[in-house]
Each structure stands twice: as C-alpha cells, then as structure tokens.
Please model this.
Amino acid sequence: MNNTKCCAPASFSIAFLLIASVATFASAQDGLKIEKSKPVIEYKHFDPKNLPDPPPPLGPGEAAVTEYRFEMNTDGRFSFNGPAPEGNPIKLNVKIQSMSITLGLKVVIWLPKDCPKILEAHEDGHSKIAQAYYVDAEKVARALAAKVVGKEAAGEGKDLQSAGNDAMGKVNQKLLDDYLETVQSPCQTAQTAFDRITAHGTNLRPAAKDAVDLAIKEAKEKKTK
Model:
C-alpha cells in the first residue's frame, strides 16, 4: 500500500452502552457506589487489500479509524411502602434506596499495515481525547446519581416487580442521557475539532499532541458560550 493512500483522511466513531441490571426490591438503605474501570485501549492492524471479517468501520476514502465507547452499568435498588396498588397495569411510586454504577471506556484503534507515523499519531490523538473526557467520569456520575438516590420514581407494569423495573428503567435511561450529555457530547465536539485542525491527520502542523489540547480547549469554549 502506498503512503498517499495510507495518509488519506482518518476518522473516529462513537458508541454508548447502558447495561441496566434487573432492579430488585430492597430494604431501606441509603447508598451510592461508583466504580470506574481503567480505559481499555486496543490496537487492531489490518491489510487494506485483505480486510478481516468483520472489517474495520472505514468510511469512503478513510485509511484508519478510531472507535470509542463510554459505558455505564447500573444496579439500582428500590423500596415500596403501602398497600399493593390495584388495576391493570399497576401504577407504582417507588423510592430509590441505593445505586451502584460501573463506568468504562473502550477504544479500538484500527490501523493499516505499514501505517505512517503521522497517521498513527492522529489516531492516538482521537484516543487521548476520549480518555481526557473520561478523567472526570466518576465525579460526573456521582453528581448525577446523587440526585436520584432517596427520590421517588413512577412506573407501571403487570405486577409490583415489573412496575418497579419500569420505574428504574426510566431512572437508568435518564442517568445515561445526562451522563452522555456531560461526557460524550463535548468529547464528540472536540473530536470533530481535532479532525478539522489536523485535516484528518494529513497536516504536519500542529503536531497531533498539540492539536489534542487545541481541540479540547475549543470544545470547552463552545460549551461556555
């Protein structure tokens, strides 16, 4: 593969994941536990003339790509006091007693064989941006979850358990939406700025490591406006 093609625009892609374990009725116990896993960074090298199965998620004209995924795994416990409600479906208000959250970041960097250093540095830049926004993930998740524990949530279902699960499902989704808005959304803004500043990895200046700082700074300035 010639260097010109290898230096064609690189890109990034994103994904997000919410794993909500089945909520269970719990005895009254206040609690909030946040566990932040270390980022998992994986490099995958491929032959552009003989792509693996499944192939890297390359777009038209792209030679390399970096995927990143912010993960949130939640386990909420709730309680219900009072007589069992009647009706079909059952409508129920539960009190969230505790919340355990596990956070993760997974990055996959796809690079062609014999990749030029400038392109590899560019893809590493995308990875570093994602990692930069993951630094405060625990603080963000804790602040969001603190607004939930001890509060009530409404749900409905065919029985008490399914109605409670419905209530927790709504809470989990709101947590995920707020988490991504705080962490992933500005990260995506910075990633886009990084590609523009570096011309998708084809500019020699600024260097990728400097462009990372410039992109994050630009994203912060846009957020404050």
